[in-house]
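call fold target=Arginine decarboxylase
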Amino acid sequence: MSGSTILLALGSLDDSSVLASQLGGICERLAKDAHQVIRVETERDALAMVQSRADLSVAVVSWDLAGGAAETVLRALMDRFSKLPVFLVTTAAGVDDLPLWVSEVVCGYIWLLEDTPDFIAGRIDVAARRYQDELLPPFFRELRRFDDTHEYSWHTPAHAGGVAFLKSPIGRAFFDYYGERLFRTDLSISVAELGSLFEHTGPIGDAERNAARIFGADMTYFVLHGDSTADRMVCHASIATDEVVLVDRNCHKAIYHGLTLTGGRPVYLVPTRNGYGLMGPIPPSEMTREAVSEKVTRSPLAEHAAAPDPVYAVITNSTYDGLCYDAVRVAELLGPSVPRLHLDEAWFAYARFNPLYDRRYGMSVNAGSLPGPSRPTMLSTQSTHKLLAALSQSSMVHVKNSPRSPVDHRQFNETFMMHATTSPMYPMIASLDVAAGMMDGPGGRWLTDEAITEAIRFRQAVAKIGARIAEARDRPAWFFGTWQPDEVVDPATGDRYPFAEAPLNLLRTEPRFWTLAPGADWHGFPDLQDGYCLLDPIKVTLTCPGTDARGTIADQGIPARILTAYLETRRIVVEKTDAYTCLILFSMGITKGKWGTLIDALLDFKAFYDSEATVPAVFPDLAKRHPGRYGDLTVRELCDQMHAQLRSSDLIPLLDHAFTHPPRPVLTPAQTYQRLLRGGTEPVRLADLANRTVATMVVTTPPGIPVLMPGEDTGEPGDPTLRYLGALEAFDREFPGFPSETHGVTTDGNGEYWITCLKT
């Protein structure tokens, strides 16, 4: 690493003084050594530098900063950086009077007039370069060193460090776009000195062990094909043919693929839903040993199981909408029933690094938090790339063993090799190594604090704007909202605050503000225990007029699909859209400017709606594609029509019933897949689907989870599942350009749904 940024927080110096002359010499020498030197005079500027410059490699702070600011600056450096060399400049004869913690933080002292500028600059230079060398995590450090040797490539990939691309004009454009370094580090497993992903040796093995330490695991495995592969891998390593497994009905489709691979027999744990149609937690009453035993006894798939007891359970934590369990409590409830518990934490990899999520992630379940013989072995799968900083598809599996069913590395690695590639992309491995390293020490807390803080600022901004609009009385009083408690109570003082007025520091540090209190109207979920479930503040659900968490339908409605379509015209893409809600993710890459554009877009949409703007003016592409349907409508009329359709079809109540009352299983997913392979299926119109067995998964988005699993019976014509799918089909016909995304469904030219079923 060449050069660095040096922060000098030394206060104000008279330019004609001896100290200023000495400091000038130090800066001149550092500049010759390729360091960028930034001088600040005030506490405010010093703190701004600490917040904004992650590339600092040394800080030099004067103990004599005005107003005792040195302590504030030093604490900010401690909170932001791990092992950053900090030199303290003092005019005192000794350091005996300094607070003890200061002497523990700083790496050395500088008396500006007692040594030459070259000597002082040399000390800073050495400290900066040592810090830069030690900063990098194991694999990324060795990959950089290998790249720096500039050796010729005699191995795959055949582009040979990018040289092949330079021999074609098309390839040259590709090479120039990404730059040489990407291709020089795209290496083959033939490079033995970088280790083996299959054998978990060398720098790769060091990186996995370093990640295990950082994430609190006994073992960690790097997975290069996303959390989907990690889920299949964990299923495949834990389930044998015809064994009973407990499966969260709110599962990712990769869990179904894992069941297909293993021949496991699923018994479903069914989450609740609220009036918005959002999927809630599985009630704790559903996870007790007695409830699980009853479910297994009632399940047709358990009749011919290899053994009566389930061997594994998988729970989605957190849910897409940001609901995260007390993982220790879940393990306590399910532990007596299963020896292994898998938490699919695809969207929750950051949880360990902020006390707001204490006990709410898989690796928090250990002998200290849950002593006793019933503690299950915990497995967590995480999409590191989703909400931490890694390249797409880069994921991890974490393991915390218990004596009941420990994961044996050699056995697990056999499964790992079945799902891993023999041509791993080294930049992806490096990104996992770096993503873990970024969260090590105080960096993890600092990064998560920032994301949480920006999410809460956005939530409060939306609430304040809504209140101002209502108070102004110069325009229609409606505005969008965000899903969260309406008010919070400070547990220390008993002070009660409207959410918009609550102190920011309390909201970002007090978990009780975000827990789902039993019976609270704002969340609308039944059968909860106090502290059992928490709403993650960084997953922000925007709410539109039309319904509430209790399912009370309003006269006026603005369906979220229309809002999402407008946001897309503003180049704002949301993560998920339901009937009257859409999900915004506040990742570590969020900025005030970024969410400020979203606020502006929400205000603009309100203005279009209130002023009776036309669909062609607001959605020109939509009107151009469907002129006969939308050409004469205003935005408000379109919202009214869609709201009326959603009301008359009872879409949300049907969704609730369809997803909380799973159909009767006839065959396991694996048995169904065998029929699919050998031509034992046929397409069936939705109108004729009653009493058929589906051959493929039917996943509706929203909400993005299975409504029908392979091998399940569709039920009678009037059953909620078929009525729900019928409501989606009718909606798609009525509102072209706003299609439902439903995997496992094909649509013909007449707008009819077709689903693949087993032949009768």
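return ok
Residues 622 and 737 are 7 Å apart (CA to CA). The first strand starts at residue 4 and ends at 9.
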